[in-house]
Amino acid sequence: MTHARQENGQLKQIAPDVYDAVLKLAQLAGKAGLDKQLIELVKIRASQINGCAFCVQYHILIAEKLGVSADKINLLVVWREVPQFSGRERAALAWAEALTRLSGDVSDEVYAEATAEFSEQELVYLTSAVAVINVWNRYGVAYRWAPPARRVRLRVAVPGSRLG
User: Fold this and answer.
1) What's the CATH number where 59 sits?
2) CA 132, 134, 139 angle in degrees (round to 5)?
3) Which of 52, 116, 132, 133 has the fewest CB atoms found within 10 Å of its own CB?
4) Which DSSP state fits 103?
5) Mind listing the pLDDT tens digit for each residue in 86-123?
6) What is the 3-state composition of the chain as percent helix, strand, coil, each rounded to the nearest 5?
7) Is residue 160, in this structure, part of any structural domain at all?
8) Angle at which helices 108-117 and 120-142 pack, to 10 degrees?
9) How far from the centroid of its chain's Cα atoms is residue 45's Cα?
10) What is the pTM of this model?
């Protein structure tokens, strides 16, 4: 394991204008009405591809709070191989992978899948969500941001309950 070169909170202190601009772009897809669970799945997948430990953990925690199932989160890395994902989620994930890897252009097949599931406006906002998570990933990887800790809720045994 490598040590963090900088913690994620330092970006806001060092370059608040950069932080604010990226954060504002990050919020637009949700404000435009795209499903927040879908956005988090896309962000997790792009972060997995880019190897950003901070962003993977951060967006898993958000996805859990939004009610994304543990099975979906755990199987995201193999989404093509399992039935848990809807056609819309599959199109979004394929789009996110194509834009994250950019090894040429986006194939006509991936574009056709995306346009079959998303309106023109939705696809623009989905593209912005993919673009901005890739920006965050660049910071997270470059500065080796440490993943956020999971806050553990203590369950207290109550006499007479199943825990007690």
Assistant:
1) 1.20.1290.10
2) 100
3) 116
4) S
5) 999 999 999 999 999 988 889 999 999 999 999 999 99
6) 65, 0, 35
7) no
8) 120
9) 6
10) 0.88
